[in-house]
Amino acid sequence: MTTENDVSTLSLAILGLITQSPLTGYGIRKVFATTPMGHFSSSPGAIYPALKRLEEAGWVRGVAQEGRTHRPRMTYEITTRGLKIFKQYLAQPVTSQDVIWRMDDLMLRFAFMDPVVGRETTLQFLDAFASHIDEHVAGLRRYLDSMRNIMPPCGRLAMENGIQGYEMNAQWARRARKELQK
Fold first, then answer.
1. Where are the domains of the chain?
2. Which of 58, 139, 146, 174 could serve as a FRET partner for 130 with CA atoms 20 to 30 Å apart?
3. Which whole number is the average pLDDT over 168-179?
4. What is the DSSP-derived secondary structure letter of residue 38?
5. pLDDT tens for residues 105-132?
6. CA 77/CA 55 separation, integer angstroms
7. Phi, psi (5° rounding) for residue 114?
8. CATH architecture label of 9-91
9. Are strands 73-78 and 23-24 parallel, antiparallel or unpaired?
């Protein structure tokens, strides 16, 4: 049973898609198979059990659509309770741990954020995102400087690559903020 404190990344992705427009399980599978959300499994063995859990939790509801087959197609839509949970999840503060360990989840939250929680919350998210990255990069740079003389060259270069990746994410967040402020 899915609870308010137990939102998997797959559930978040499904809720986000259904918030934009009611979808069938097959429609969700197509999105996962044909978009940058492709790292989610488009397997029926992942999607349909997730939809069932969300429906049992009362976060989505399946509506039977009459069609040309004997078996009606189910179109899933978000419920009031599901939207409330989704908004709470999107609006939760960004943490340093999120930046270090859950960057994909942060980007997924951002992708659905603006129309659901509003522009101001989205801008605050970007500010916190960039700020936590800046703090993490400062710590990584201090560590790199302290280890420069004893770290093997490949280790140093790998760490520099990681730092540059974080810096690019912070730069992107600041650019995204400017674009959304227009």
1. 9-91, 101-181
2. 146
3. 98
4. G
5. 999 999 999 999 999 999 999 999 999 9
6. 10
7. -55, -50
8. Orthogonal Bundle (1.10)
9. antiparallel
